[in-house]
Every structure is written in structure tokens, then in C-alpha cells.
Specification:
With 295 residues, the protein is of the alpha+beta class. It has a single domain, classed as Double-stranded beta-helix (4-Layer Sandwich), CATH 3.60.130. The protein is 24% helix and 23% strand. The strands form four sheets. The chain has a seven-stranded mixed beta sheet, with helices on one face. The protein has a three-stranded antiparallel beta sheet with strand order 12-6-14. 37% of the residues are buried.
Length: 295
Amino acid sequence: MVISVNQQHSSFFGVVGPINLRDTVDETVLSEIRGAMDKYAVLVFRDQQFTDDEHKAFAKRLDGELHTKTGAAALTKSRLGTEAVTDISNVASDKTLMKSDDRRRLYGLANRLWHTDASFQDPAGRYSMLHAQVLPQDRADTLFGDMRAAYDGLDEGLKVELEGLQCHHSIAYSRTTLGFEFSEDEHEKLKGAVHPLIRTLPRTERKALYLASHISSIIGWELPEARILIKELMEHATQPQFVHAHQWRDGDLVIWDNRATMHRATRYDDANQRRELRRVTTLDIPEAPAIIAAE
């Protein structure tokens, strides 16, 4: 083994031993990281010093094409100048802390709901890579849930019932449940996508629940019954035995497989404490990931 991993939860989540990902171009190492992702679904790499361009370059080397159709892009242009890097922060374009009624802040509150990145797009997101650049004084953990273990914990009869079901995912739906209002043009840009409720992970052939607060309906089901089932599955999948809380450190890069996990942010004093995270997400395309030379 080139890399070492310290597992943090009984079923998933690993912290990787010292490695500088910015300079990691060797295919043997990248292949071991992919293998560790298959096993642990979430990996933490400490003390990473990325610029945004270096962050994107590493993501391409590891997993290929980048996701650029963020939901926030329907509202406003990114202050970072690229839609390939998602701005997870409470910082306005003038570099001050966002006001409580800032529309981008209100939109971002839904990150505290359990969700799966880019499930509202087709292709959806595969790996998300979130880098901590500035952390608040208070803890602002991210919670992760192992959807493979959650699937394994279902009754066998329910597994059979769920097989083959398709769900519509809409980021507009998850936001409107919190009272966020979209314009007609924004709704048009955020039509959503349809994905299976049960996913089989290609390299391991393990099955996982593919859940998110973005799920608005189950195709072919009456709406009340569909939403009750999704609510029951979300409650099942977020029980403590399937969940791990990550306490951030400066320089952490956390990579998770959106096909195998859900996650959510937790509250902190965003009116007074600055937090700046950057996220790059790769596309879940069926082709093998391209190996791209360091930029």
C-alpha cells in the first residue's frame, strides 16, 4: 500500500496518512486513492494547500470531467469566476460577511438538509472534494451518512419493493421546502433530473440508497405516498449507526462518493464568523475516468 488509512467509523470514513495531493500525479497513488474511496466512501486528507486551479487539476487527475452546472449559478455568477469551483462560504462579493437576508445565504441554508451533491443534474455528481480555507471559531461539522450500510440495514422485502424505482431530484424543491422563492426563469433553469432510488456501485457491486432532500417525487407513485416513503427512508438512513461527524481542521480536503453517501452541514454563527470552503465535484459518467497530466 502506498497510502495508509485510519478508519473512523465502523462502516466507512477514513483519514489518510500524510500526502501532498497538489503534487500527486503518479497513477499508482491515484489508483490507490480510488480503491480507498470504494472501501471507505469518504476520505480526509490533512494539511492540503491548494489554489483553486490546483484543486481543479487534482480533481481531474483523480476522476476526470468536472461538474459545472451548480444550482447557485441559476441565481448569480460566482464571485470566484468559475462554476467548476463551488463557493461554500458566508462571504459576499465585496469580501464582507453576507447579511442575514442575502439571497445567496438564504439559498445556502439548505446545505443543512441531508443531500447528495448534483443529484438534480444528469449526469449527477460522483466525487465531491471540499477544501477548508478559512474556518470559523466555533465548530461547524459536516455530517456524513453511509448509504451502503443504510441499504444493508433495510428489510429484505423492502429492498425488493425499492428495486427499480426512479426518483425526480430538484434543487428548487429542496429550497422551496424552506420557503425560498425562485423566479420563473430560475425554475426553468432548475428542472431537475431522474435517478434510481437504489444504485449499484460499479467497481464493488455494492448497493446503496440514493437519497437526498432534493427528491420531489417517485416516478409513477401518488405524491403523498411517495413523500411518506422518502421521509421514512431518510429517517432510516440518518440513524446514528450510519452517521459520522467530521470536525474540520484548517487545510482539510474531504472527498466523498455521492453515490454511496449523504451529507449535511451544521449550524454555526455565520453572522459573525467567517468560513470559506471550496468544492469541486466530478461528473458521474460511465466511462473510465480520464487521467490528465498535472496543470
